[in-house]
TrEMBL record:
Residues 11-262 form the ABC transporter domain. It comes from the Bacteria. SMART domains: AAA (SM00382). Pfam families: ABC_tran, oligo_HPY. Belongs to the ABC transporter superfamily. GO terms for molecular function: ATP binding; ATP hydrolysis activity. The keyword Disulfide bond does not apply. This is Oligopeptide/dipeptide ABC transporter ATPase. GO terms for biological process: peptide transport; transmembrane transport. Keywords: ATP-binding, Cell inner membrane, Cell membrane, Membrane, Nucleotide-binding, Transport. The keyword Membrane applies.
Length: 328
């Protein structure tokens, strides 16, 4: 058992697959879109697992499965002793609705423009825990606003009166209302100005330390993921290309795709090579290694055979025929 696998886990994902039938025309036979293929990872309790990859890599599909908004075709998700697969016990589903909350990419689109900030933040409490006394709700609202660094008077404002960073703080406060254990952060700063991104990321780190939260962070930006995460998984066409600790991925990247993501987030980085082209359609993934059509180091075997998984250390593994194990 690896060091990561032996740690207490907030989430343990095992061999998750998600396939969608897609019909091209009225009379045509549906094709199978493999959005996620045999995905496994562990989010350590109190840590952050970062899912990084381009649009279309399967990150959001995995997030929906974790949140319960979608069900896997196969495999299972464990939260401690609670198991979620194609079916889940009603009591476990109710637990997940409270304990696992989301902070989404668009801080304006996710907030009702007609509601006041106080109503938005308290909405989960009103839905999940009816019967709260008015004074108790008001006290909880003020606590939540203070936790995310917003003045108490903001409770009377509407989303349109706030900046993008302030709206995202409201979204975070709403996610904290039910005292969750896990937050799914889906591109939480990509819609914000660069000057505001660091403030929101630092707030999320402070909240994690103060409340003991576990984060599943989704981003296309490896720099954001590296700043926040204790562990990182690199996704491409629904498959993990590489997984490891932050240092494994940032300092010892072994997959050409990981190197390409480093090049995209750090244009001046040495010993990494950017890639061109676009991610292929998941309806028609390439044979062999799915990355070979864009890989600068692809060889004949890469075009014909799916690569094996190599364990480079107790925490670091890569799926590649020719992993980059040295910068020499």
């Amino acid at each position: 058992m690896s060091t990561l696998e032996s740690q207490a886990s907030a989430i343990r994902v095992s061999d998750i697959g998600r396939t969608f039938p897609v019909r091209g025309g009225l009379f045509s036979r549906p094709k199978m879109l493999r959005a996620v293929e045999n995905a496994s990872f562990v989010l350590p309790r109190g840590g952050t697992f970062g899912l990084v990859g381009e649009s279309g890599s399967g990150k959001s599909t995995l997030a929906r499965i974790i949140l319960g908004a979608d069900e896997p075709t196969r495999g299972e998700v464990r939260f401690g002793e609670r198991v979620f697969g194609k079916r889940a016990r009603e009591s476990d589903t109710r637990w997940r609705q409270r304990a696992v909350q989301a902070v989404l990419q668009d801080p304006f689109g996710s907030l009702d423009p007609q509601m006041r900030i106080g109503e938005i933040v308290l909405e989960p409490l009103r839905i999940q825990r009816r019967g709260f006394a008015r004074d108790a709700l008001e006290k909880r609202l003020l606590e939540l606003l203070a936790q995310v660094g917003l003045p108490a008077e903001f409770r009377r404002r509407r989303p349109g009166e706030l900046s993008g960073g302030q709206r995202q703080r409201v979204a975070i406060a709403r996610a904290l209302a039910l005292e969750p254990e896990i937050l799914v952060l889906d591109e939480p700063v990509s819609a914000l100005d660069v000057s505001i991104q660091a403030q929101v990321l630092n707030l999320l780190k402070d909240l994690q330390d103060a409340l003991g939260l576990s984060y599943l962070l989704i981003s296309h930006d490896l720099a954001v993921v590296a700043f926040m995460s204790s562990h990182i998984g690199v996704l491409y066409l629904g498959r993990f290309m590489e997984q490891g600790t932050r240092d494994d991925i940032v300092e010892r990247a072994a997959h050409p795709y990981t190197h390409a993501l480093i090049a995209a987030s750090e244009p001046d980085a040495l010993d990494v090579q950017a890639i061109g082209g676009e991610i292929p359609s998941p309806l028609a993934p390439p044979a062999g290694c799915v990355f070979h059509t864009r890989c600068p180091a692809a060889r004949e075997v890469c075009r014909k055979e799916a690569p094996p998984e190599h364990r480079l250390s107790a925490t670091h593994r890569v799926t590649c025929h020719f992993p980059i194990t040295s910068k020499a």
